[in-house]
Amino acid sequence: MRRVLLGVLASALLLTGCERGVHVATPAPASEVVPSPAASRSPQVNLSSVQSDLNAAQSGQSRADSAASAAQSAASVDDNG
Amino acid sequence: MGRHRKAGVAVVAAVVVGVGAVPVASAAPAADRGLAAIQAAAAAATTRREGSLQAALSQVTAGHCLSAAHRAKVQGILDADLGAMRGLSAKIAGDTDRATAHADFRSIFDGYRIYAVALPQAFLASAADCLTVDTLPHLSAAHAALAAALGGPLAAKDTPALDSELADMATRISAADAALTGAADGSLGVTPAAYDANHGALTSYGATIALGDSDAKYAAADAETIVAALK
Q: Searching chain A, which residue's CA lies closest to the CA of residue B44?
């Protein structure tokens, strides 16, 4: 029960922290954005390429969300671990 | 920024932060059972775990997110546990002593923590890698392209509000990267013993992954706002 309450509390804290401008972590300066193969290519003004990147980013997030949900489902199995 | 994003962020945060927070009772009470009952319970428990592990192996290793090193680590954990469950199943079925069978039965839970550790850590690592290997690089690319556009060909459409969105996007990407750094390795480093000592051992990783996920979503929303204004 205590752990359930802690989980609820943690969720509440995290959700509060998700409000814009209220960050738990200290963000690094924009200049420290980690370079990546995708980021290192020449920036293009073509907005369709931006949209393609955003679609790909969203695809990764969808897979991340599915994996996170699977993690929660496994941890929720009430079978003594 | 698209405020509608917050609902989705909240859902993900609530889902991920709960990992490891579910209370786990002591090992299934079979001490007062007879040998046959223990063997039957053990068969059910190991069969269930074998099915879950095999499903997870298919899901996690077939995905495109895990880095090669993390994929190997996850596969090693799940394969080892799968072998252990098969071994325990056979051993307990052949046990002729109730006390031995009971000790073996308890080890199904205490020794491996399949549902409390192995499976969640595999999926958490996958979630972290989906964000770091896939999502953040694309967001960084989008940010670079938008910065170039606003600073060059589309400068006439630039506004302080768009500059603010762009700056926030960069901050969110950096914050997500910072939150996610080490999350996959950390979650994969949690052992059943560590979990027994601290049932919240995986929770902190789930929380940081949720934080990185929400920052990435905000960064994407920033980008969408800018793109919409530039069209």
A: A79
